[in-house]
Amino acid sequence: MVTLHEDPDMDAQLARTLIGTYVGGADLGEAIAAAQRIAAGDYDAWHDEWDRTASAAQQTAEQAARRGLPVLAGGAYLRASEYSRQSYFFLRHDLSDERVSSAYRQQRDHFRLAMSFLPCSAEPISIAFDPVPLNGYVFRPDSTDDSPRPTILLPGGFDGTCEEMFKYGAHGALSFGWNAVTWDGPGQGGQLIEHGVTMRPDFEAVLTPVVDWALDRPFVAADALALVGRSLGGYLGPRGVSREHRIRALVADPGQYDFVSRFVSMFSTEDWEKVLAADPAMDQQLDGFLGDARSREFYGSRMAAMGAQSFGGWLRLLVNYSLDGLAENIACPTLVTEGEGDFASQSRKLFDALTCEKEFHGFTEAEGAAGHCEGMGQMVWQDVVFSWLAGRIQG
Known about the structure:
By secondary structure, the chain is α/β, with parallel strands linked by helices. The chain is globular, with a radius of gyration of 20 Å. Helix 1 packs antiparallel against helix 2, helix 3 packs antiparallel against helix 4 (about 70-85) and helix 13 packs across helix 14. The chain has helices spanning about 10-20, 30-35, 45-65, 70-85, 100-115, 170-175, 190-195, 205-215, 235-240, 260-265, 270-275, 280-285, 295-305, 310-320, 345-355, 380-395, and strands at about 120-125, 135-140, 150-155, 180-185, 220-230, 250-255, 335-340, 360-365. The longest helix is centred in the N-terminal third of the chain and has 24 residues, at about 45-65. The protein folds into three domains: about 1-120, acylaminoacyl peptidase (de novo design (two linked rop proteins), Up-down Bundle); about 120-260 and about 320-395, 3-Layer(aba) Sandwich (Rossmann fold); about 260-320, no CATH class. It has an eight-stranded mixed beta sheet, with helices on both faces. The mean pLDDT is about 95.
């Protein structure tokens, strides 16, 4: 695959932003130019350059809106939203950093300004949940038509927002004439950054209120409700659907079965028992995983999302994130996908544990869809996934 930045993590995040070009939410030249002004590993500069690029897009949007040019205004606001989201990506290990909360609000506010200019209906929603309501959006092809339509539920991942899910599935659903619902769950987006609500493993407790909300709307067809889980959603979706049986079709991209097994093999049996027992000496040793800036951000952002105060505490939390004994409870047709070389994938492990109607599809580097969530091969992924969904939920 083409490399656009010398820092592998920054290169991956740049590619993530470039995916927005599919939906008018990024410009290739603008985004690549911003990233190339940043030195490898300089997370402060990453924030500053993307923040400046977002401000420029915002100014373009405001000028277009004043001139009565809705298409230009909507696209520029979408770009400003994506660039603002990108600006705080490498700062999330410290949620008290004002730049994180400020940039989060900017990406949300820019997205909401874009909504009135989109060629579809997009409305903010609030779903009853404890301790605070879930924030999200419902996307519809036409808000004046309440005819029941197939509806795709799109939970987010470890580090995205419900706004970003517009490019990761909501836009595709709309192109089929379907509805889409996105939301921030515990440990995600506004739930984490604004309210301090950290992640929980029992996603069925999060999914059921969303399903209740959706099925209470006349425009949602009860027999055509699907869930597409991407990135961490490849665990959250299956976990939720293992208990919430009103979902009629499930996609996991990539499938994720359990988290802690990725680490257990690094320890002897005796040392792993010390980890689980919160042995002080072991915990102190484990914090060595956070010794450099890259590791402090990579692991620290995940610790923050899950409410862990130490690396050892995070490992102990991961034990609870498992589909062992639950995957076989999934009853609806399920498609498990995998991009070649996806670092997070446990797709085969999940697929093998399923007892429902199931299908596996692997994407390759040769077809341009390798890496986490198929990288920049989003249309290749969408062609397969939405064709499969159409066969299950479109009458």
